[in-house]
Amino acid sequence: MKQLLILSGKGGTGKTTIASAFIKLAKAKAYADCDVDAPNLHLVAGNLPEPKIDDYFGLDKAVINIDLCTSCDLCRSHCRFSAIQKEPIYAVNSISCEGCGVCELVCPFGAITLVPTVAGELVLYKNDVIFSTAQLKMGSGNSGLLVAEVKRGLKEYANDARISIIDGSPGIGCPVHASLSGVDLVLLVAEPSLSGLSDLKRIMETSSLFNIEQAVCINKYDTNSDISREIAALCLEREIPLVGKIPFDPTAGSLVNRGLSIVDEPCPAGKSAKDIFQKTMTILLNKGGGKE
Ligand code: SF4
Ligand code: SF4
């Protein structure tokens, strides 16, 4: 299975818009949304079957057995994360708790234990296609581990698919690192703004650390022609193929708001996306065998 990951370095660049267009154009049998903090690919994925939903357990969290607690205050005074309250009874705030285990260690009465805690949901849509995604619970960490689980689900159920398309997370942090692992090509969606250019440089560097081949497309390129030219020059300098530019197109926004992709109806953005898709697939499919 050849894996294409779509990243942007920041939110709001049109990454999911491109991903949903590619899924339609490729008639993809396997795809995933790794933006586990705010997944939204399902909103533009068309008709989906009822999903299979499983709890995802993150780090263990501390729980106080109030029957054993003598209110000695040792746990609260040792907690570096201010996660323990004393009023009206000693209790742990599970959102603040980082699961470090210090409180369990210092409690003289064995009143504290670390217990597995649900940190999110793994969601798998499965019929003639496999769509793997997840939603992290508010305040939970370990998004990278959850992304790894999303990709594991994709591989487990759709490893015989020719290609898979993965909508990654914004930024350059832990979930992005987890999405990058094992992919064959990263398509970076750039936005022609000062912050967009800076974010593009950061995500290029992050992807390079994983030694993964990259390609770039510019969304809404005509909203700032000067910076679009800078992005093109950057690609040239770093020998990264610029596979196309999408114009600002109000039709694109209205299609997405109707739960459609930009290639579902004729529009300038959809036309450019088709061209970018062809060029991206040529790079992806001409690479050596898919990674494990
Ligand atoms: S250290 Fe143990 S006994 Fe002391 S307040 Fe905390 S839970 Fe209660
Ligand atoms: S496990 Fe660590 S973070 Fe959580 S309540 Fe105990 S000391 Fe605080």
Protein architecture, described:
The structure is a single chain. By secondary structure, the protein is α/β, with parallel strands linked by helices. The protein folds into 2 domains: 2-56 and 120-285, Rossmann fold, CATH 3.40.50; 59-116, Alpha-Beta Plaits (2-Layer Sandwich). It has 9 helices and 13 strands. It has helices spanning 15-26, 74-78, 102-106, 143-158, 174-180, 194-209, 225-238, 250-257, 268-285; strands spanning 2-7, 30-33, 52-57, 61-64, 84-85, 91-92, 112-115, 118-126, 130-136, 163-167, 185-190, 213-219, 242-246. The strands form 3 sheets. A 9-stranded mixed β-sheet has the order 3-8-9-2-10-1-11-12-13, with helices on both faces. The chain has a two-stranded antiparallel sheet with strand order 4-7. A two-stranded antiparallel sheet has the order 5-6. Strand 5 and strand 6 form a beta hairpin. The longest helix is centred in the C-terminal third of the chain and has 18 residues, at 268-285. It is elongated and about 70 Å long. The termini are close together. The mean pLDDT is 91. The chain binds iron/sulfur cluster (SF4) (2 copies).
